[in-house]
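HOLO CASE FILE
Compound: iron/sulfur cluster
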Amino acid sequence: MPDLAIPDVVAALERMHGAERWHWTPESDPFEVAVGAILVQHTNWTNAERAVDRLREAGVLDPDRLADLPDEAIEELIRPSGQYRTKTRKLRAFLDLVARHGSLEALLVLPSDALRAELLATWGIGDETADAIALYAAGQPALVVDAYTRRLFSRLGLGPPPDDSYGAWQAFLVGELPPDAPALARFHALVVLHAKHLCLARRPHCGDCHLAPCCAFASDAPLPP
Ligand code: SF4
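Model generated. Tokens follow.
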């Protein structure tokens, strides 16, 4: 099987998905990104998006208006994302963090180390959520490692074991990607698009994938009859 390096993977993803657009970009609304990053925990994007859409339709996709809602109202609005009581607590903790800084803008202009520390000290926000907020809401060069990233590179036979630590996966990727926010956002978007359209959790569409000749998972798959 041909050797494969991370830049080769990125180039192949760009060829396959370069014309597609994922809903988060560096231009996305920062509060919507932060709320979406919390709501997508332990669910898929379809469910998280439904919850975000309900918040938008209710006119509360805004820190002050959302903070004014009682917990029960938030729970009802975000119900499609699952774990809606826990996620309401997480949203409330994030809203408290915003309030302590005076505004979302004031929070997001913190230096990257300080912002990450503040986010990680907030109940319900872990590494992946913190990096997603730093990258897409604050425009900082954070590298998001999610389940899609682990699945893709593990199937390609690259990187640490799939369930290794977040830090181990970041260390594997970080030196191979340009250290700027647009490039890191592009990389993350390409991985998500690939996972959603071809590299599915079950029955990936390897026959349509440019990476198949170099993919350990595809080479292990049984040949069609
Ligand atoms: S060949 Fe299949 S398993 Fe490998 S990266 Fe492509 S879609 Fe995923």
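CASE NOTES: The chain has 13 helices and no strands. The CA atoms of residues 198 and 205 lie 5 Å apart.
CLOSED: yes
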